[in-house]
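WARN  no MSA supplied for this record, continuing single-sequence
INFO  ligand: pyridoxal-5'-phosphate
INFO  echoing inputs
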Amino acid sequence: MDLSQNVKAVQEKIAAAARAAGRDPAEITLCAATKVQTDETIQAAIAAGVRLCGENRVQELTAHLEANAYVGADVHFIGHLQTNKVKQVVGRVSLIHSVDSLRLLQAIDAQADKLGLVQDILLEVNAAGEESKGGVSIEELPALAEAACSCAHVRLRGLMTIPPVSAFPGANRKYFSQIQNLFVDIMSKMSDNQSIMDCLSMGMSADFEDAIAEGATLVRVGTALFGPRPPLGTAH
Ligand SMILES: *Cc1c(COP(=O)(O)O)cnc(C)c1O
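INFO  complex generated
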């Protein structure tokens, strides 16, 4: 596996998908999903041109920060976040993608207040209504978006979604399209100018081109950059 070749190939596919959709490739940000990767691999990815890393687990985020593994890149938190762990994330990442409850939102707001900063967030939407997954339901999204806008120490930047594991190519386009519509809808209702809805985080290795066709501004890619991960539970 050649990481720098993979980075280049993914960047080229992103640009091609953007052009095919009549979009400017510069509108789309590649976020390298770095779960289970070592400090050295993260540094190699950054040397190969990655400018943004997305971390899933608080423990890995903390370890990589301590090791200065992200130097040269920005870092986002993209995994499920427990309320009791917000202290380890708020103020340490430039964007939290996975806010999906009022309780979590309020915990982030309170911690950001304590640190005297404003934390950028996305709301994670459970587009397919899968019970096993995080994310706010489509029905509950408007109320959570409103709550986010009323938090003084949180800035709502957009939405994130993780659709079902794709049954066949193109299977997730309908979810991407649905979330893009919700994104536009919420944006049009924003009245406070602290919120800049400019981020639609959707698409992973198997479907980032479809997500770009449906309006994604940020794609989270792991496997296509780093190769297959060891099965869950054997990684550490
Ligand atoms: C692992 C992960 C990704 C990347 O998945 P790949 O299929 O390996 O590209 C994207 N988003 C989140 C939230 C992830 O946990």
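Residues 69 and 83 are 25 Å apart (CA to CA).
INFO  checksum written, moving to next record
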